[in-house]
Amino acid sequence: MTALQREIAARLELARRAACDAGKLTLSFFCRDDCAVEHKHDGSPVTEADRQAERELRRQIADAFPSDAVVGEEYGEQSGTSEFRWIIDPIDGTKSFVRGVPLYGTLVGIEHAGQPAAGVIYIPPLDECVYAARGSGAWYERGAAEPRRAAVSTRSSLADGLFLTSEVGSFARRGAADAYLRLERAAGVTRTWGDCYGYLLVATGRAEAMVDPIMNLWDAAAVAPIVEEAGGTFTDWSGKPTVASGEGVATNWLVQDEVLAITRGFVAT
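^ thats the sequence. predicted structure below, dont judge the formating
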């Protein structure tokens, strides 16, 4: 193992612990009638659970790796002096969280020199976690069970597969409502088990494709290395492997061309 690999592995271990701790913190607010919901300038909801969980993530990162930069959904960016940057989302799926739907998660992504290096997706109500570091594979664990390799499915046709998205209406908001209809017609099954839970399903072989027309950096940074280390692909709608395009396409790689044949027709030129 190289020195860089050791540095990434140490950060991934901290990311797993911190995501679990922050995620479990959100459970103390989950399904509570007194968990007040506010709305940010973009109309998205935020709760005290989001804020406390992000503060917990930032505290643990600062204690262990004080020279690293951190950017999070609720408290913005804090600069660092190392080549590492943490990209965190304390509750990915706040809309689900505030309605008592258990398909939300805590995301922790780690970049090195501007490139995604590792990521963690933790689903607190289900106690499911999938994590990965570049070159080390993706791993899945649930509860107290031993971690096992995470791997994408081997279904080679979208007609035999499960297509997921976070929110159908987001296709129309970017002028791509027909893209959703075409993907839905092509897929054997379509569901909106969205946000990071959908990407966990792709990485663990339970879904073949997840497409989001609108994504923030903190939605994508943890997801890309996980899906790719599980044997899949994560790109923008044009097929470029990036977390910075404001959109996302995750596949088991076997259906990638089929999905991109649809999404590429809706890429702004």
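DSSP finds nine helices and 15 strands in the chain.
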